[in-house]
Design goal:
With 185 residues, this protein is of the alpha/beta class. Helix content is 18%, strand content 21%. The protein has four helices and seven strands.
Length: 185
């Protein structure tokens, strides 16, 4: 992202210089208030919003974040984009108190086909919530942490609190929080 945001960053530095903390560095970085943030590579799929002519360095473009509160010892995992469930994500979930997870699409066929390729949402890099390879099934291996879906697409029936989809997810121990919710670690 640094390479892609380089031109904007140069313009903004004239107003107020800022440091970009490297969450991929060993040990991550500490935020004010004692939160330690570490990034964990989840994939190399380049987002569609990156201009085709932009210099695109190799490396992880998709990351999950582990946030630990040094005072309480609480651990939150934030994985807003999950195209493939990995052993790394299993490990992060196993050690978390709370998991905020990509809930972009409820079902594998939710959007039909997208774009010219006809590949549907799989081409967008998001696992569905339901189905044998969905994130709800993967989360079932981790009953300990609080499990919350985030990043819901406007086509996702989980947005409707009265939907059968929302009831299904709730029955399996996962949550959809209203906008403005606050989490304590």
């Amino acid at each position: 992202m640094r390479a892609v945001l380089g031109p904007a960053r140069a313009a903004l530095d004239r107003y107020a210089p800022w440091e970009w903390a490297d969450s991929l560095a060993d040990g991550g970085f500490v935020l004010a208030g004692g939160l330690v943030v570490t990034a964990h590579p989840m994939g190399a799929r380049i987002p569609k919003y990156v201009p085709a002519q932009a210099p695109v360095p190799a490396g992880p473009w998709v990351t999950a974040y582990r946030v630990e509160d040094l005072a309480s010892g609480g651990v939150l995992v934030y994985a807003p984009c999950v195209g493939v469930w990995s052993p790394v994500l299993d490990e992060l979930c196993a050690g978390a108190d709370c998991v905020l997870l990509d809930g972009t699409f409820f079902a594998a066929d939710e959007m039909g086909t997208v774009g010219r390729s006809g590949a549907g949402q799989a081409a967008l890099g998001h696992l569905p919530v339901t189905g044998p390879d969905g994130t709800l099934a993967a989360l079932a291996r981790h009953p300990g942490p609080r499990r919350i879906y985030t990043h819901l697409n406007n086509t996702n029936p989980l947005l409707d609190p009265a939907s059968p989809a929302r009831a299904h997810v709730s029955e399996h121990g996962a949550e959809i929080l209203p906008d403005g919710s606050e989490l304590l670690l």
